[in-house]
Write a structure and sequence with these properties.
Blueprint lengths: L4 H7 L4 H8 L4 H16 L6 H13 L5 H26 L7 H6 L2 H13 L1 H7 L7 H10 L4 H26 L7 H36 L1
Helix pairs in contact: 2-4, 3-4, 3-5, 4-5, 4-10, 5-9, 5-10, 7-8, 7-9, 8-10
Length: 220
Amino acid sequence: MSASPFQAIISCLSSKSALIGCFASFSGFGAYAVIGGVLFACGLGLPIPEDITIIASGILVALGKISMVGAFIVCMAGVLVGDSFMFFLGRRLGDNAFKLPVIRKFMTEKRIKLAKESVVNNSQFICFIARFLPGLRSPTFLTAGAMGVKPMTFLLLDGFAALISVPVWIYVGWWLGDNWDENLAIVKKLHVYLIFIVLGLGIIYFMTKKYFIKKTIKSE
């Protein structure tokens, strides 16, 4: 009995190179279905690299197996549906969401605790920055829903972050094209640079917020 596309993806998790090679074996509707499904699964916290999945879609564009517009639509949909599912699950169940067996299987106590602390300290900004932090996305979005972050706030911030990250990684995949296996080191560097940029924005945000809080206190 042949393995399903998702079982094939799971079997390729031993390395990023193997994972991209597995994605590259699909084309057309099958490629769109696998990419969208895997990204949704990433949003649920499954241990599949989301960024590599999006990069793989860009590689498929370069190989002529899917279109650029199709890759963007499917990646955005997969990312946002997965994120929203976790957020609204948390909103529906509250703290009980953290007790679900499937959640506890993929999310460690440490990650959940860190996510809670982050959301408590600044719920709005963390909904934006979590999109750029692998391993913290799912627990953060689940926590944001459980702790009462407004749906519109979450959707706007997460959507804005996705509009930045998704096109960037698709373009990187398209740029890598046939040479993806030789250039994975570049991808790692780009990922580090992106995280530093986001952290820099975070520092600017918190410093600006602190300044205006002090200014408000002085004026009272």
